[in-house]
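Ticket #4471: structure export looks truncated?
Reporter: QA, pipeline team
Priority: medium

Steps to reproduce: submit the single chain below to the structure queue and open the exported record.
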Amino acid sequence: MTKGNQTLPEFILLGFSDLRALQGPLFWVVLLCYLVTLLGNSMIILLTRASPSLHLPMYFFLRHLSVVELLYTADIVPRTLADLASPHPQAISFQGCAAQMYIFIVLGISECCLLTAMAYDRYAAICRPLHYSILMSRRACVAMVSISWLMGIITATTHSSLIFTLPFPRHPIIPHFLCDILPVLRLASAGKHRSEISVMTATVVFIMVPFSLIVTSYVRILGAILAMASTQSRRKVFSTCSSHLLVVCLFFGTTSITYIQPQAGSSVTTNRILSLFYTVVTPMLNPIIYTLRNKEVAGALRHMVKRQVFSP
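Actual output as written to the record:
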């Protein structure tokens, strides 16, 4: 296929074809994680819509987070499974690679912003309870979710236009199982310096800034918790934040290691394992964490199961 007089390259995804002994076990692990992800996040969406006790801002954000996780895995996992089932590296078209990266960035940035909105919700509930209904009104929640998606779209459009207008080799091989930003960018034969500066700037803005806002929210929440006289009250308030904290640590921990570590100190295998963790394992763990550690979600689930089992 050509663009003007320039032939568009077909990318080769190396995947895990150089680690053939791991391909079989990885296929079944990834498939299991994907099925649990589909079931868990679909259940969260259903619960937060059907249960009146979960019609709160925190669970409004959680529902959108589950939607992001479902779309995120649908963008990556089916192709990864197909690649793991094949002993040879698989080709992906120029347009297919660009589309996968675009969706990947939109959803990744949206998740960063949604996690930040959820931290702000906890701050408003614990530190400013008298103003909570105003700060977290329906209009405010819809605005936060809309901004999250808008930031994802803006970032994805900027990055994709910068990266995929660069010249690539005729048969570029991506040492990864998906069209991630840095592996694709490093294949470009010119203009990398400008694009790498853009990528690192966006990394600081869209990973470190949201993370800093989350940390700031929890520092204030911690101050409010420590000021409480009752130990029981402290435990009760902290329990409302523990699920979100675990999800934040999982998401920002793996993405920060992947995108902020120096290029010279990174290894191809390590990058693939880390990427597998935050694209496959983390979306599976999020609904499990919220179901097991959040009493309201667990209670709503038990109520729904009892109603389905014992209803005539």
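Status: closed, not a bug. The export was complete when the record was re-opened. Leaving a note from the reviewer for reference: The mean pLDDT is 84.
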